[in-house]
Amino acid sequence: MERRKRLADGSFGELEKVGSAETAEEKAVRLEQENKLLKLQNQANVERMEFVEELIAEIAMKVYE
Questions:
Q1: What superkingdom does the record give (predicted)?
Q2: Which residues make Cβ contacts (< 8 Å) with residue 2, sequence separation at least 6?
Q3: What is the pTM of this model?
Q4: Structural element, H or E, at residue 3
């Protein structure tokens, strides 16, 4: 959470972090990193699945010769 501290002249100062909750910017950075990791994991799973499918096809060819 963020807040603006009131300055001596009555105006509001810069945003400052209050408590341990994530700011919007911190959350955006964390979610971007998580999204990048999930995309890489998904690509690895797709490649693994393609390999297994090819392996099954190859085994089937040997069985039915």
A1: Bacteria
A2: 15, 16, 17, 18, 23
A3: 0.63
A4: strand 2-6
Query: How many Cβ atoms from other residues are within 10 Å of residue 23's Cβ?
Result: 14
Residue 14's φ and ψ, nearest 5 degrees, are -70, 160
| C-alpha dihedral (3, 6, 7, 9), degrees to nearest 10 | 150
Total count of residues recorded for the chain = 65
Cβ(14)–Cβ(2) below 8 Å: no
User: What pLDDT is attached to residue 3?
Assistant: 84
Residues 8-58: tens digit of each pLDDT = 898 998 888 887 888 888 999 999 999 999 999 999 999 999 999 999 999
Contact 25, 15 (CB under 8 A): no
